[in-house]
Design brief:
Elements (H helix, E strand, L loop, with lengths): L1 E12 L5 E3 L3 E2 L4 E2 L1 H7 L3 E4 L14 H4 L16 H12 L3 E6 L18 H16 L12 E4 L14 H18 L4 E7 L4 H12 L9 E7 L2 H18 L7 E8 L6 H9 L1 H15 L5 E4 L12 E3 L9 E5 L1 H15 L1 E7 L3 E7 L4 E8 L7 E8 L5 E8 L4 E7 L5 E4 L2 E9 L1
Helix pairs in contact: 4-5, 5-6, 7-9, 8-9, 9-10
Length: 437
């Protein structure tokens, strides 16, 4: 098995694909992962399902920040921004930017409250206008630059969980809203609709509706994907979505994955949740980040970074002190994959790299320091493999080999006098190599 790296061949800027959903201060502000967000350099936090069912009635969701739908959207007194303000301040304190989902939290339970089409689409758009004005213009004691992107809705094709209306009703809500909002905020980045796992008929209908009559503006297109084969799936999905956007005349519109994680299948979720939190899930994250960098995605957000979420593979409780004390969090295995990619992201420029078979690799340089992340994720393999590494035009001769060790849930660092030309990889494993003098 061969791995090739050439630090003299630059590819692109390193991309902010190690974003997350939610965090760092979660569980009603009682769990704090701020220091870990900073360590990994988390670039974006998308706000969806924030603080649990129905947004706990206080966070992010339109019904949580504007509780009486018929009230006047131009009156600041009708908005409930306080809890969301604190949440966003905590994100910005960590050096992370915000993607704000305009819509509602998923409703998996038997009682559906907010996933029906709004009673008045124009009123809903005007409420969204107030939210955007608050977080971009400081209106109603808000912020000047609190949010960079606004995403309209979430998984609208997911009937009985996210949208209890027809497809056509959603298409109209989205188009009416984005046309209205872009006229009010031409310089604010607004997009969506965060479609789910490869619902091609819904998406084709969506673009057909957007391009009929007055063409809807679109600053980004977002979708979600849960999968098990990083090396193939990430590239296949990008090619499908890019082709559909180009065909619809949105050739310059960037693509975001605002939710991704591991799922073999949706029928045995207890097994999935275990994998998300163990070393196999960490190897998956490392390989997925490598492949995300190698595609044309502009931004990607792992789901989920909030403590208590079943899909949280990043953080666990570090210690328990007093009843009223804010508790710090410590890393789960996948955090180390995020941190390793974050270190490459800070270097700034992707360098050429390629790997065979089930190995993923990405390399980065700042012109002085070179580094690469290598991982292997294979659910069927039983044996280790030895990858032969051909490194060209490095800016140093020595190397630090930073390996994740599942037995201690930590990394070990070995410094060697020459750049390694082989590395042994278990079926679920990853490491970062830093080259220096």
């Amino acid at each position: 098995m061969k791995v090739q790296i050439d630090f003299s061949k630059t590819v692109s800027k390193m991309k902010p694909v190690h974003g997350v959903n939610n965090g760092p201060v979660t569980f009603d502000f009682m769990r704090d992962a701020t220091s870990l967000f900073v360590r990994a350099g988390i670039p974006y936090s998308r706000l969806h399902d924030t603080e649990g069912d129905y947004g706990c009635g206080e966070f992010v969701d339109i019904p949580a920040v504007f509780k009486v739908f018929e009230a006047d959207p131009e009156n600041p007194a009708n908005y409930n921004f306080k809890m969301t303000d604190e949440y966003i301040k905590a994100i910005r304190k960590a050096g992370t930017k915000v993607i704000y989902r305009l819509g509602v939290t998923i409703e998996n339970g038997p009682i559906k409250r907010h996933i029906y089409p709004p009673k008045d689409f124009h009123q809903w758009a005007r409420i969204c206008e107030g939210v955007i004005r608050h977080y971009t213009e400081g209106w109603a004691d808000g912020m000047q630059d609190g949010v960079e992107y606004f995403e309209i809705w979430n998984e609208p094709e997911f009937y009985n969980h996210m949208w209890l209306g027809t497809h056509e009703e959603f298409y109209k809500l989205f188009k009416d809203t984005i046309i209205y909002l872009k006229k009010k905020f031409p310089n604010v980045k607004i997009g969506g609709p965060a479609t789910g796992n490869n619902d091609k008929p819904f998406t084709e209908g969506f673009f057909k509706y957007l391009t009929e009559g007055e063409r809807a503006p679109l600053d980004f297109f977002s979708f979600h994907t849960y999968f098990r084969n990083p090396k193939k799936h990430i590239h296949d999905r990008f090619n499908e979505v890019r082709a559909l956007l180009d065909k619809s005349g949105y050739k310059d519109v960037p693509i975001f994955i605002t939710e991704w994680n591991h799922v073999n299948g949706w029928d045995h979720m207890e097994e999935e949740y275990k994998r998300v939190s163990d070393h196999t899930g960490a190897a998956f994250v490392a390989c997925a980040l490598c492949e995300l960098q190698k595609t044309g995605y502009a931004i990607a957000n792992y789901y989920d970074a909030q403590f208590g979420s079943s899909f949280n593979g990043l953080f666990k409780l570090a210690r328990f002190e007093g009843h009223d004390d804010v508790q710090s969090l410590s890393p789960k295995p996948s955090f180390y994959a995020m941190e390793m990619f974050g270190d490459l992201y800070r270097l700034g420029t992707e360098a050429y790299s390629d790997a065979e078979e089930d190995v993923s690799v990405v390399a980065a340089t700042d012109g002085t320091t070179d580094s690469f992340l290598i991982g292997r994720y294979n659910q069927t393999a039983q044996n280790n493999v030895t990858a032969v590494i051909d490194v060209k035009n490095a800016h140093g001769t020595k190397a630090d080999i930073i390996r994740y060790r599942a037995d201690v849930n930590d990394v070990e660092i070995e410094t060697v006098d020459v750049i390694p030309n082989t590395i042994t990889l278990a079926p679920y494993s990853f490491a970062r190599i830093v080259i220096h003098n």
